[in-house]
User: Fold this.
Amino acid sequence: MTEILRNAVQECEQRPNVVDGGPDELGKLLVFWRERLDPRRIAGVDTQRRRLKPGLTQAEVAHLTGVGLTWYRALEKGTRHDFSDRFLLRLAMTLRLSETEQAVLFQLAKGQAPPQRPQLSEADKVEPDMQLMLDQMAPYPAYLSNLCWDIVANNPALDDWFPWLPYERNMMRLAFLYPEAQQQLVPWKEGWARPFLAQVRVALAMYPDHEGLHVLKDDLLSGNPVARELWAENEAIHHPDGHVRGIRLPNSNRVMPVKIMALAPMGNMTMRFITLLPQETGQE
Assistant:
């Protein structure tokens, strides 16, 4: 085992029989990571059901990562698969792995490091006064995104609503490539996926030479069959300002209607200043 693996599994070694260096080490770590999860912090998980063991069930993890239960059970038993980076990133988000634990996951599963996260350009860097404005939106979640929908800054309220933000900062990729996010955005297809893709179409029309937008579109269409279906309908929406959509909040199964307030900084009109305003008491 490499030095990075020895360092990363120290916390796991506190639990007997979790790490032994054998061929099923990945499966044992997956069980440990799954059982330490708090179901109340994951939207779309039934927190009312009686649980015989801590954490999430295998069925819940399989559902949230977009794979079959039989496939995931075999994974925890140590069965090797041809893992894609996309699946491992979904699994890391569902299991709430730290950066070091993600490195362990990729090393054991593929023998390589996780893909590097893209760095923000100079144009995307946020000034302190803009961050102050985001913070002043509390208790309402607020964030600033760039032309490609990368969240470049947000206030703490957004972290409370969306615990998966540390794992994927692009709103479009979250919505289309991560089943867990699809559990939280309600109704996903008509309320979120359809208008999101319509916005991507407008952005591509306005900035046809922007490589990042073309990469984003290709990622969404290749990674989600519903995205391909919706893209063929050729809808176009410029912005979501004033739209009311549903969000299932963590710690409950309530769906909260929220109004999306969308603004643009005059200094960079490709940026989006988004605030989410709850409209009424959530419904079950």
